[in-house]
Structure formats: structure tokens, C-alpha cells
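PT: before anyone asks, these are the final sequences, not the draft ones from last week. 189 residues across everything. Please model them as a single complex and drop the result in this thread when it's through.
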Amino acid sequence: MNDERAQVADFARSLLGRTFTGHGVAVRISEVEAYGGVTDPASHAYRRTERSEIMYGEPWRLYVYRSYGLHWCVNIVTGPASIAGAVLLRAGSVVDGLALARERRGDVPDAQLARGPGNLGHALAITKADLGVDVCETTSVHLGPMLSTPEKIRSGPRVGVSRAADVPWRFWVAGDPSVSAYRRNPRAG
DNA sequence: TAGGCGATGACCT
DNA sequence: GGTCATCGCCTAC
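LR: through. Structure below.
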């Protein structure tokens, strides 16, 4: 089981530096969080419900959910299906479609266009309509190639989760200005 | 069927 | 540093 959990963390790290395109805007991924599925109390897949069902299926699918009624958060299902792992895309820097991203996000500094999971989803115009798409297919939402290997990857506790908050499964590119600030969930103890 | 709560972000002091 | 908007989903009744 530990090996499978390590796979999810490796998957998360491997996404850093890759591009992710959503409806005409592309970002270079700078921050992610890994969720270990059935063995991870912080994961939506910890309980198998209709919503989390997609994480028990094929890897490379998009899992989109709404947070606090306002924000769309973007996850990539990693597999293996036996543990229902997924990786949350938390932040990135816009590398293509800058004008469109600015239009969607309004008057904010470029480094903040896709800073934080809600903002990233907004900049890429990801909604529930994109739930379940295969990100390896070159459609309006897809995962692109590695732009450049990140020089230094750092890790730390995940942001905002109230359970298993001390598991260091947040990974980010050191020094990247688009990485969001760490904030601990007040319920995490 | 009702109530509680959250993998957030923006704005306030 | 603290507060709050806002609504879909999950759980308990």
C-alpha cells in the first residue's frame, strides 16, 4: 500500500513544470497536492460516493468539484484504481492565452492569474462540464509536455485540509511567484 | 428532507 | 491576523 501511495506522490511531482491547457489558456504547473484516496482521510475518495466514483476509474481523467459554492477545483485522477488517488492542481503561471486569462480574472498581477486552485480553475474556465475528460486527449482541456524541468521541488503539508494535515504531500517549484501561500485549516488542530 | 460543513479567496483591520 | 460570502454534497434523522 505504501508503494501505491508513493506512486501518487511521484505522479504529483511529475506534473510540476508541465503545461496544462484549459479552453484557450495554458499554464505551466507550479504547485500541486497529492491525495491518496482510500487511505487518505483528506481525500474525497476516502469515502466512495457518487461524486468520488470517478477516482475509482481510469487514470488521466479530470475530477472537478465546487468548493465553498464559488470555486472550481481541478484534479487529475492518477490511479491505481485500487486506491483512487488524485492530484489537485493548485497553481501555475500563464504561458499562453494571456489576454484571455486576464479577461477572465480581471485586473490582477500576472503571477496571480492562476494562483490558488480556485483562481487556476477560473483562469482556465474549468467547470463541471469538463468532469471526466481524458487529459491525454488533445481537446479543449488537456495536459501538455514538460516545458522545462523544475530546478528545485519543495514539499510541505497540504493547504486547507482539516484531516491528515501534516502529511507533506504538497509539492511546488521553489521560487516560482505563482505558488500560493500556505494556510492551515483552523480545524486541523 | 434538513442541517452542517468545506482540498477557497477576497477584503478588512 | 481575522472574518465572511455562498452552495453543492454528505450525513443523520
